[in-house]
Amino acid sequence: MPIRILLAEDQALLRGALAALLRMEPDFDVVAECADGESAWVELQRHQPDVLVTDIEMPGLTGLELAARVQRHGLPVRVVIVTTFARAGYLRRALDAGVAGYLLKDAPANELAQALRQVHRGGRAIDPQLALEAWSEPDPLGERERQALRLAGEGLSAGEIASRMNLSTGTVRNYLSEAIGKLGVGNRIEAYRLARQKGWL
Length: 201
Known about the structure:
The protein is built from 10 helices and 6 strands. The chain is of the alpha/beta class. Helix 2 packs parallel to helix 3 and helix 7 crosses helix 9.
């Protein structure tokens, strides 16, 4: 039986190239290609693949949020992140979301194929350098602080963030202040930039 793979990648050229590459392997079957996280979630339930290969940054639902949803719903699919983000913070969050593989897009094609086979067998495939870095600098942000900071980075006011998160404006200000304090910066924009750079958002 071939390994059934669902591919989620928002860049059309890259998605097509990756799909073509995977289809060259005799034991792989790419059952669906998706351009965003929400459509990937729908296709996951429709096709019930063995492995989900996903990028991190996608419209609507990020690859990390998609992985967390897979974990929360107990879907029997192994998740592999393939990304340009060589950031330890992203890897830590991916592992927390139950991801079995985390590879960089500049990895050789044969490494990706081997990693997918390894993950399908129940193993893990993590970029070794990133794995070392991931445990050297822990993510200080709580989930609510992260959410508030991400929205602040999109230019939303405290009131707009409060509306989006179903919280009071005062509570949102507290979350933003906590994030600023933990990151040791002067304001929410600096906090957003630093957290993005570290891969904590």
